[in-house]
């Protein structure tokens, strides 16, 4: 009888140990995914902020964060457009940024919608990575507009830099999720 009780306790302890190790393993997967993105610190911050425990959840949280930051960058750009009414060259470049951020927002919203229920479907997730990639190209066009005009300083350079890093991280995570789930 004592031996049976001992065996039952051992099995219960092993089951509890396995259950406790599982979240740790998932957290390790999320942490290791953050090692291979453009800015690991931003990725880790999103993981903690969102409470993501899987790569899919982290990808979703990264899309959400990138979308929110892109919307904020667009707002900053629109304020800068209003504040710089006299400099036509600056306004022209800010208009490029405004359009770029608007298009990036639309692309990230598309990624967000497609990512929801269909994240495990290879085709749908390929569309998610495509939409994120498109958003990244749009964000880059804001930088391009100012780099093509030497001496013209972008008042939205900081916002653009943050959005570009977040969106790049987002793309890395989406591709990692896609590869992990055999979509390639």
UniProtKB/TrEMBL annotation:
InterPro entries in UniProt: PCW_Enzyme_Inhibitor, Pectinesterase_inhib_dom
Cell cycle among keywords: no
Pectinesterase inhibitor domain mapped to chain residues: 25-173
Keywords recorded for this protein, A-Z: Disulfide bond, Signal
Keyword Lyase included in the entry's annotation: no
Molecular function GO terms recorded: enzyme inhibitor activity
Cross-referenced CDD domains: PMEI-like_2
Signal sequence annotation: 1-20
Family, per entry: Belongs to the PMEI family.
Name the UniProt record assigns to this protein: Pectinesterase inhibitor domain-containing protein
Naturally occurring in which organism (per UniProt): Zingiber officinale (Ginger)
Record lineage: Eukaryota, Viridiplantae, Streptophyta, Embryophyta, Tracheophyta
């Amino acid at each position: 009888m004592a031996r049976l009780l001992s065996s039952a306790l051992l099995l219960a302890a092993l089951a509890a140990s396995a259950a406790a190790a599982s979240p740790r393993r998932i957290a390790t997967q999320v942490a290791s995914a953050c090692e291979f993105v453009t800015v690991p610190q931003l990725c880790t911050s999103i993981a903690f902020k969102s409470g993501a425990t899987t790569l899919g959840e982290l990808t979703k949280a990264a899309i959400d964060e990138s979308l929110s930051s892109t919307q904020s960058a667009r707002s900053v750009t629109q304020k800068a457009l209003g504040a710089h009414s006299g400099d036509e060259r600056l306004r022209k470049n800010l208009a490029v940024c405004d359009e770029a951020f608007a298009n990036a927002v639309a692309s990230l919203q598309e990624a967000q919608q497609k990512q929801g229920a269909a994240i495990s479907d290879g085709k749908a997730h390929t569309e998610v990575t495509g939409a994120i990639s498109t958003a990244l190209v749009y964000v880059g066009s804001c930088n391009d507009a100012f780099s093509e005009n030497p001496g013209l300083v972008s008042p939205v350079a900081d916002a653009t830099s943050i959005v570009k890093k977040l969106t790049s991280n987002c793309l890395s995570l989406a591709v990692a999720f896609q590869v992990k789930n055999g979509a390639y």
